Task: structure prediction
Amino acid sequence: MTASLNITVNASRAELNDYIRSSTDPRGECVALETLFRRLASGTISGNVIAQKAAVAAVRASGTVTLVYSDLAANDTVTVAGITLTCVTGTPNTVQFKKVTDATVTAANLAAAINALATVNIYVSATSALGVVTVTANQSGVVGNLITLAKNAATPGGIAVSGTALAGGTGGANSAPVTYSRGL
Result:
């Protein structure tokens, strides 16, 4: 039987940025988390740790955004995790993606825009293939099913989304939570 442990730390995002970050160094990440827990335990920083265990490993939620190049227009929008990205034909800014030669390249631009936004990439990551962008929750479990997904297209067929939120996230904590508080 596979088991997982979900830990939620209730602290400010600024406090957590020094300890929880995406990296390719798993050992470094474990050391950073160890430091976080030591500081919480000593009262150097305040917060709660809520721990729950699950009987099975959780699955990450996902959703898709499909672009139909011939119907996609400037100012069409896609909203992911509450942040709206706008289709443009000129040079895009940080909350825009560029419509270029075909749906495949345009979808790659949208995926890149999602992954580049710090306000979105903490919740999801995006990949693209053949005009379809797959948006996947970073956190496993049912919590990913709460991440919103929407579109607003001038031509209804220009953008299609798989639903109003990511879906398919399963598992997660199924035990009663245990809260450890320190320094509050």
